[in-house]
Amino acid sequence: MTETLPIPVSSPLTNAQKAALVNLVRRAAKAEIMPRFRNLAAAEITTKAGPEDLVTEADHAAEAMLSRGLQKMFPHALIVGEEAAAADPSLRGKLAEAELAFILDPVDGTWNFVNGLAMFGVIVSVTRFGKPVYGLLYDPVMDDFIAAEEDGPAEMTRATGRARPVLASQGGDIDSLYGYMHYYLMDRAVQEQLAPLMPRFGRIGSLRCSCHEYRMLAQGRADFLLSAALNPWDHAAGVLIVQRAGGVVRMLDGRDYNAGIDTGYLLAAPNESSWQKLAEVFNPRLAPAAEPPKAKKGD
After folding, report:
1. Whether 7 contacts 36, CB under 8 Å
2. What pLDDT is attached to residue 52?
C-alpha cells in the first residue's frame, strides 16, 4: 500500500446492512454470551498468554456466530476475530491491505465477564485498508450501543431504539483530567517511567474493558486514554467513535491510527488542546521508547 489509499475510502455499509449487523450482534449476545454470564463452569474458562488473559466458551461461540453471519453478508470481506487471530496471528497482518475487513471482539472485558462484573461488551469495527470507517460498541447487559461511521455523528442507541448524539468532554488542565491508562499491561520498564506522572492527573484508572472505556470517552464521562496494547479488536471501533464524538485520537508520535499498527502508544483526548497537553506530559517519558516492548495481555 502506498502513502495514499489505493481507492477512495467511504463507508461500506448501507442502512440495511448496519441494521442487520446490529441484529446479528444482539442475537449472538442473547444466544451465546448472556446465558453464560455468572454461569460459567470451570471447564469453560481457559487462559492464553498468561493467567489473566482469559478466554471462555462465550468468546469462542459468539465469535463463531458473528463470523458466520458476517461472511454470509459480506463474502469477500476479511473477518478478523480476536480468538481467530490468537490461533492464526498472520490474520492481523492482513488488515492494512484489506479493502474491506470486519474486526471482532466477541467478549471484550473477559476478565470482568468471568468474575461476574457486568462491564463487558461486544466490539465490531469495519476498516478499509486498516482505516476504521464504522465502529460499534455494544453492551449486552443493557442491550444498547454507541456507533459511528466516518462521515456521521457518534450516536447512542438505547434498547428502545431511541438514538441521540454523544459528545466528548471539554477537557481542561492536566490536574483535572480523568482518564484510563493500560498501565498494568505495559512492560515493567515503561511502568517505571509512567508511575511518577500519576499524581499529576485528576484520576487515572482502568475498567479492564476497552468497549466501556471508549463509551465513557465518547459520552464525555472520561477525558483520555493511553494504551500500548494495540490489539485492533480493542481499539479500531473506539478510535472512530471518539473522533466522531469530537475527540482527537492518534498515535503519540503523531501518526494517524491504523489497525495495522502494532507498536507504539495510542492517545485519545477530547480535543486538540487536551491532546497536545497530554502529549507534552507523556512524550518525555515515552518518546525514547519508539518501539515499546509488546504489551502484556490480560483483559
Report:
1. no
2. 82
| 88 touches 276 (CB < 8 A) | no
Which residues on neighbouring strands pair with residue 134, listed in sequence order? 126, 149
Rounded Cα–Cα distance for residues 151 and 48 (Å): 37
Q: Write down the pTM of the prediction.
A: 0.92
pLDDT tens for 54-64 read: 999 999 999 99
DSSP string, 108-162: E-HHHHHTT-S--EEEEEEEETTEEEEEEEEETTTTEEEEEETTS--EEE-TTS-
Contact at 8 Å (CB) between 250 and 281? no
- How many whole angstroms separate alpha carbon 184 and alpha carbon 71? 35
Q: Residues for the chain: how many in total?
A: 299
| Dihedral sign from CA coordinates of 181, 187, 190, 195 | positive
What's the CA gap between 271 and 105, in Å, rounded? 27
- Using CA atoms, how far apart are residues 215 and 217, in angstroms rounded to an integer? 5
Handedness of CA 191, 197, 201, 203 (dihedral sign): positive
Residue whose C-alpha cell is 490489539 = 231
Q: Percent of the chain beyond pLDDT 90? A: 88
What is the number of alpha carbons within 13 Å of residue 16 lying toward its C-beta?
Answer: 1
The angle subtended at Cα 211 by Cα 252 and Cα 285, nearest 5°, is: 25
| CA gap 234, 66 in Å, rounded | 16
- Is residue 92 helix, strand or coil? helix
DSSP 176-231: G-EEEE-GGGS-HHHHHHHGGGGGGSSEEE--S-HHHHHHHHHTTS--EEEES---
The span from the CA of 187 to the CA of 194, in Å, is 11
Residue pair 259/236 in contact (Cβ under 8 Å)? The answer is: yes
